[in-house]
Design brief:
309 residues; mainly alpha; MetI-like fold; 14 helices; 75% helix; globular
Length: 309
């Protein structure tokens, strides 16, 4: 077990190095430049700015310089926000994206897992067909379609919740963007939970428990839930990382001051330090989520701990 965790950590380091390298050179290939504005900057001033940020040096020198800075924990300064440190930008914006992701994931778990359990318990019944039909609709409808609909209906027409904006201490502003993000994940979770629970319900120990007269709800919760949730748990970690990294569109629709908006603006202005910092942060989040998912899988499945298939 310890060996597998060490291997995963080493793989994560390699993945981050590859992400950094690809991002650095892809940004260099992007058209335009960080100091191109509607009003032309005099050549000598532009040269001094590029020298200040080290952009006048060869690309290889810039690469090794930026790599060494990241190894020291210094992502550098933003090129767009007048030399604002990247760490400060991420420190202010990422907690908003993280809070949105946590609320959205809570909604997904609250809807998806119970729906999957009920569908498995009532296999081929009306509840099963109805919940899986709604799950398929949730999978097919992307967030950029669901978001504007919810904002228009519940925000501008019914006035139940704010149609845009975000307040860290105002739960009413969380509802629409969190539901928009959480619905798709809930749909996948419900289908995975249903599949895992149906497989577990077909095991011999379940038939034995039924023969002994154990109530159905007790069989479902006490005997089947732990094993039936293994496929869903394997999905939860990457899904949570995907919710946070994929909230860019939602943050734009609902005008949320998260990291996604800074990321989009950085791409538009070719702000390489912010782009690289955000990519590495999202990459680290995915790696950490996968590692936690592996640990949860080991806890749920004793055969994995013993090395058996």
């Amino acid at each position: 077990m310890i060996k597998n965790l060490i291997n995963r950590l080493l793989q994560g380091v390699v993945v981050l190095f590859v992400l950094f390298t690809l991002t650095f050179f892809l940004v260099k290939k992007m058209p335009g430049g960080p100091f191109q504005t509607e009003k032309a900057i005099p050549a000598h001033i532009k040269a001094r700015i590029e020298a200040y940020y080290g952009l006048d040096q060869p690309v290889v020198v810039q690469y090794y310089r930026q790599l060494s800075n990241y190894l020291k924990g210094d992502p550098g300064l933003s090129l767009r926000l007048e030399g604002c440190p990247v760490t400060e930008i991420i420190g202010q914006a990422f907690p908003v994206s993280l809070q949105l992701g946590i609320v959205a994931m809570a909604i997904a778990l609250f809807i998806g897992i119970p729906a999957g359990c009920v569908a498995a318990a009532k296999k081929n019944g009306l509840l099963d067909s109805g919940s899986m039909a709604f799950a398929m609709i949730g999978i097919c409808l992307p967030a950029f379609v669901i978001g504007p609909i919810l904002a228009e209906v519940f925000g501008r027409v019914l006035h139940w919740f704010p149609a845009m904006g975000w307040g860290s201490t105002s739960p009413q502003t969380w509802v629409l963007p969190a539901i928009t993000l959480g619905l798709v994940t809930a749909a996948y979770l419900s289908r995975l939970t249903r599949a895992g629970m149906i497989e577990t319900l077909s095991q011999d120990f379940v038939r034995t428990a039924k023969a002994k007269g154990v109530p159905g709800w007790k069989i479902l919760i006490r005997h089947c839930l732990r094993g039936g949730l293994i496929p869903a748990v394997a999905y939860i970690g990457p899904a949570f990382a995907g919710i946070i990294s994929g909230s860019v569109v939602i943050e734009t629709i609902f005008q949320i001051p998260g990291l996604g908006r800074h990321f989009i603006k950085a791409i538009e202005t070719r702000d390489a330090p912010v782009i690289t910092g955000a990519v590495l942060l999202y990459g680290s989040l995915v790696i950490a989520a996968n590692l936690l998912t592996d640990l949860a899988g080991l806890w749920l499945n004793p055969r994995l701990r013993s090395g058996k298939n």
